[in-house]
Amino acid sequence: MTVAAPAAWPRLEDVVDPIRQIIDGTAQITCLAHKDADADSLGSALGFAIALRTRGRDVRVVVPEPLPRLLEHLAGFETVETGGAPLGETVFTFDCATLGRFGERRREVENASTVVNIDHHWSNTAFGTINLVDASASATGQVIYGLLRELGIPLNPAVATNLYAALFTDTGGFRHENTTEASLRLGAALVAAGADPGWVALKSYKSRSLAQVRLEGLAIARMHSEMDGRLLWSEVTAPMLEETGADLQDAEGIIDALQSIASMQIAILFKEHSADRTKISVRSRDPIDATEVCTPFGGGGHRRAAGAEFGDPLPIAERKVLEVARRLIDSAG
Ligand SMILES: [Mn+2]
Asked: Is the model's pLDDT at 316 over the cut of 70?
């Protein structure tokens, strides 16, 4: 079921009191990140959880499987749960545009009595009991910062570090088009509150394993260029993972190499999740919208960066998705 997003989202000042009542009136809160969590989703969940714990609240942080081990530098990562205990009745979600982002936890979110949906995707389907969605925010971490300020909960260095990691990575290290005056000012405010920008940059972009870089090398070597370099794509297959000793999480970052090419209008990385399941990461430049490549396959995301996961073997997924991409480039003229 797709829920149409409301024409106008509730404003922060309209939802802050109901959110405060939920926080104060609930014995245990679960903060849930999305499947294949990135630093925006998990950093926001952990940052919010740590902030609430300073107020004496009982807060869990849960992520759908698998545990995103590349994010182990986030403050409080050792407390993150995956699998195991039920989510409970009160769930806050972070950076999740649709129920499809919850993987094996989807039913539990649908059945929870209270869901507070905090996000910055314009495509958010308003699945929460309360929806705090700001599509102008560069990251969900930015929405969390505003919420904590309204709730009157001060930032400590651990919270600031997690929110900075969220903001820093969702703007590609303040390089993507969603980098704004507000996000740069927020970066400074988070550094003032105790985040170390050099350390977050080191952990986010300069802490890769040999296996990761070798996998990227293989993927770049087999990159395909079509339509005068406007369509660039490559793949990560099970034999490539075996050859390098990498796993699928190590494919993170390969799409950045593809999208760094000057002629690129659509870049796609296909990942062989299993024999009959494929994941794609997509990047685009004007005038093409990356979500248009992904929505036919049940995915979504942002205009410049989107993704999907669906039940087709790799070669079939490639044929179908490339067809869509070629058509989009053709009609862009
Ligand atoms: Mn985000």
From this structure: yes
Distance 14 CA to ligand 1 centre (A): 22
Residue 260 CA to ligand 1 center (angstroms) comes to 21
Q: How far is the CA of 121 from the centre of ligand 1 (A)?
A: 7
Neighbours of ion ligand 1 (CB under 5 A): 40, 95, 140, 170
Give the three-class secondary structure for 321: helix
Instruction: Decide if pLDDT at 1 tops 60.
Output: no
The strand pairing partners of 81, in sequence order, are: 62
Long-range contacts of 146-155 (CB under 8 A, 24+ apart): 146/12, 147/12, 147/16, 147/19, 147/48, 147/118, 148/48, 148/51, 150/12, 150/13, 150/16, 151/16, 151/19, 151/20, 151/23, 153/51, 153/52, 153/54, 153/55, 154/54, 155/51, 155/190, 155/193, 155/194
pLDDT in tens, 83-96: 889 999 999 999 99
Q: How far is the CA of 239 from the centre of ligand 1 (A)?
A: 31
Q: Which CATH number fits domain 210-332: 3.40.50.10280, 2.60.40.730, 3.10.310.30, 3.10.50.40?
A: 3.10.310.30
Locate the domains of the chain by residue range: 12-205, 210-332
